[in-house]
Batch of 3 targets.
Target 1
Amino acid sequence: MKPSPRHALSIVIALSGLAALTGCAMFRPRPTAAEITQCGKIVIRDRASRRHLDVVSQTVKRPSHRHLVVGVTWELEGDEPYVAQVRVSFYDEQDLLEVGSYEWNGHTFMRGRQYLEWTSATPDAVRYIIEVRGAN
């Protein structure tokens, strides 16, 4: 049985969409080992930020006051400072976001290595996501 032109067109459109999605996934590099921990990860959202910034190391601790503390050592490639937007989101056990987790904040990364640390606002935080994107 020969497929109708309409059926053939829908197959071509579906395959084109699948190819486009696969192509986008190919251009998004997998996170490095330094970008993932047991309770969170760093997501670098654009190519410019990935080209300029490297995650050297990440630490996660919960001191006696029980707030989740995440520290990241970044390394800036190149001689010029790099301005980026950073958003840190802490989540509780019910996967609810802390207040302020929706805000993007500007940060200027300087040449070489730089350590940044964030602390959850509540003691209930169990996981986090740190997102970085270019400021432009």
Target 2
Amino acid sequence: MLTGTNPTTVIRGLRDGQIIYVFAPKPNGGGFQIAAEHGLEGIPFGESTARFIHMWGTNVHIPPELTNKPLFYRELKAEHPEILTALDAEHEALVTEGQAKMQAPKRKVARHAFPRP
């Protein structure tokens, strides 16, 4: 994976039916605001009817000229395939990790008996 020194927030969604990426410098608490500013909609996920705007922190090196502007998937694929490959691998790993956590057996939390007044 290509790594950089400035962590970046990756915001991925749909606009007019096409996947759009926006790279925002960290720290960034307003990823959904940035998505709204660029008119991004959620992406369908699996067989669910749910739609998600994907956001994650990355250390993949993003050139400064690509920061804070919407980029179509096809643009990244044509002009920066190494960035797209690294981001896709990173996102897939995050999804796999999240799914594993959801499928892990739940531990019961011990309840302590507190005396009642």
Target 3
Amino acid sequence: MFGKTQLMNVALGFGMAMFVSGCAVSSQSVGGCAKEGAIALFEQPSVEKQINRVATASAILKSNHLIINEMPISVDASWMEKVTSDISDEQEKIIMKKLEKDPYFGTVLLTDLQNKNLTTILSRLSPLEKTLYHRIDTFFSEYPDIYTLTADVSKLLKFQGGVLKPVEAIKGDRYANMEEAIISMVPVNSKKELEQSIKEYKTSLGVVARKKEFLGELEKDTASKTANKDKIEVTTQEIKDLEKISDEKEKIMDAQWKQAIASIDTGIDDKKIELAKKIYKVLTALNDGAIQAGCLYTTAGLKTYGALGQMDKEVQRLAIATAISPVLMTKRISRLKDNALMTIPNMFVGVYAIGKQQLFISKYIDVVSKIVKIDEDKKKLANNNASK
């Protein structure tokens, strides 16, 4: 089904993506990855659990995309405080109640007890699943479907289904999304060129991602790889050529970001300073999420290889529990079979998207960090003058 080399490439690919942005790695993201690794180390081989890790990673990617591109923002937008807070015991209980209707979460305790897998008995939600569902519960009144894997670029970046909660009334300057708010903080004479370079770079990223989507489909299993050997070779070269074009677009955009950031002066108004501080906290959480999603992709890739030979036995073990919970177990087994062939294509595009998402996060952090530093320097100067 999956090749060992493919899985290692996914792991190595994320290793590069994790540091491409230059963002600091927080103790929270490192701790979350360590806990996830510890859980994976002791669990029994299971393709399903790795599929769920991939689904969780892709959903974290989607939540980052939602926060950056789709959530209206202003200095008093309450969602910024909520999404950067820790999940409460009460919220976790609400989440688990909703997840009882999910084929996996509604039956996993039953099947893990049956198979003597103790990891889920201790906690049905892994540390990184808690991070994800804290975000989903913050933004959605009805949860979207995250357990149908896809390599379709548009579907990989955006949640399918679900009902978003209305954004509370916002006072003051309101922006359509976080990127718009951040660009509003750079001087007017830098905006036009910056926005154009961002648009061109994002277009080039989309072209590469769609080609990676196609490659993932060609390599989704052994039979497909054998039948499409020549196409795979051609497509791999096409991706390299497209990435060279994208790299050039990135250099142009990077120069525009640097110019814009360098021209931010000390005259920036207090409202934007306050907004920049709140955005900085959100961006730190987004960077943590991207790193944690990468850990999930990597863990799933490496663990899947050890579980492949158990796939038929795994389905048989699940089928035993069908008599106890026929509706959910039938859906669970069907989902497992459907998702198995989509795991690698999903990783191919997901790992690439995370790396590029982190690149943008680093640019946003550079802007708000400078503004926060301007404010700190102002206060320090005022304190020095007051003490004289």
